[in-house]
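Two proteins were folded this term; both appear here.
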Amino acid sequence: MRAAMLLALSSTALIACSGGASEAPVPAPTSEQAAASTDDALPFTATPVATLDSPWAMNFLPDGQLLVTQKAGQMLLISADGRTKTPLAGVPEVDSAGQGALMDVVPAPDFAQSRMVYFSGSVAGDGGKGVVLWRARLVDGDSPRLDGVTELFRATPFVSGGGHYSGRIAFAPDGKHLFFTNGERQKFDPAQDPKATLGKVLRLTLDGKPAGDPGLTARGFHPAVWSYGHRNLLGIAFDSAGNLWQQEMGPKGGDEVNLILPGRNYGYPIVSDGDHYDGRPIPDHATRPEFEQYKVTWNPSISPGGLIVYSGKMFPQWQGDLFIGGLSSQSLLRVDVNGTNAAKGDQWSMGKRIRDVEQGPDGALWVIEDGAGGRLLKLTPRG
């Protein structure tokens, strides 16, 4: 479906794991004034725009400004040229230990009128810790802030530990629902537990009320569950045809891209194309055809972080394809999409862990590097 890549860099075997080790910090890169990338193997030029402190997610506002979350709990409003970085007041406190963070941030479908943003983060509470979904009104101007912060939903149950929160947000094409990912919190079995939201893709109303798959609800599942049998879901996005794509970190190997269908069981931890970190094997998906199988898998791991469906005009040969940030693989990856089928496309070495990827208003690709001093980079066609 896609035209041949411009000067594509072929995939190489990359040594990585996609669990806790994939979340380790990295040394600070050079300053934001560093020169744009001149690596001739890349089909794009990477121009540094700003330097951040362990950024986690980003999203563009209609006026071209960016909202960026940082692990420790800050949300920044950044001008399109990166010269102004303003912390927002009113952000609720998060528990950022381990893989905890202030996580995703997405403007509401009617943001131009409502000024509402939805965002997620990890918090401590009864029973341990979990991921929470909030909504607030963004106030710009002399004192940028979040007003009227409201908790819409929290994962259940809260459990001990500091890993696999997930917390990604995607609005449905109907404008009436949103999808929210809950990781299995490194506890394995909750991904198959019908009463837990852990290890699930959830569907909610815009007010946070459960609106899961009716078939699962009738079988006694938590009423928000849309699909289940997932691990650590760090990317979710709709394509122009209304297909819902999701990526997740597998165990030792077995990172996945999935086409999310209502009511389906994606098999974890019963099946995976990776293995446990202690070396114990997990049966492959192919051995259990009753489980919905991934569309793409990686072994060794790439440690996927962030996902978009590209729709811009700056890279027309990639329209409709998926872009994924690679953490342990220190890469940006393209997945070729043809309808409801997908295949590995390209994997470009970025030299740093890529925490998130986004499409700018002009169709440029934007990525953020993980860790202290992680840069915000704008990617534009070479030449």
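Next, the second protein.
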Amino acid sequence: MSNLTSPYDELADAYHATIDPDGAGLIDPTFDALAGEVRGQRVAAVACGQGRDARRLADLGAEVVGIDASESLLAHARELERQSPRGIEYVHGDAQDLRPLADASFDGVVCYMALMDIPELEPTLRSVARILKPDGWFVAVITHPCYKSPAHGELVDHVEGTYRRIAGRYFEEGPHNSATRWEILPRVAYHRMLSTYVNTLVGAGLSIEQMAEPIGDRPVWKEAAGLLYFKCRAAR
């Protein structure tokens, strides 16, 4: 029995009730576009939670292995798999070492909205590179580090009547308590500068091919990007 635990263990039921409780899978056109044609590929969903990204990849035709540190979230993922089988395998493991997953065993890896919740970025990305086949791809989605820094808020410009995003303490990397995070998420997140993400990806052998900053639904996210997407490629 593994001693690995996660801050999400205590939040798993509330998280599941809010995030894809019927198991339909992730709906994100930008993610789909970056992942591309995955049919017939073996793909790892790292920090998969209760599996919404894994279900989306399986629906697109991939052979999927989901891995997460929270057994409580994985229990929900496995129950959804039992109810509607897609052939997804779920594994209990730490994203920071991906120890249960073999070297060079995946065509692609995704990490959807999780890197900012993982304490150590460098070993996580090196582990991603380790499990990728030569020329394999990696897609990651994070809260935008430039606009979701440790001190941030919204402001209405009363002259124009438009929204602005205020961001501060950008250079203070590390854990911080985020007052604006949903209650279904752990209070502590890990802020990193954009340059830290880019340099750590490149240092792990993951060359950036594309980045995306889609417009969000809320008024403030029509003025500043809320999410940042990367698509990377492992060395041949």
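The two ends are 37 Å apart (CA to CA). The first strand starts at residue 42 and ends at 46. These notes refer to the second protein only.
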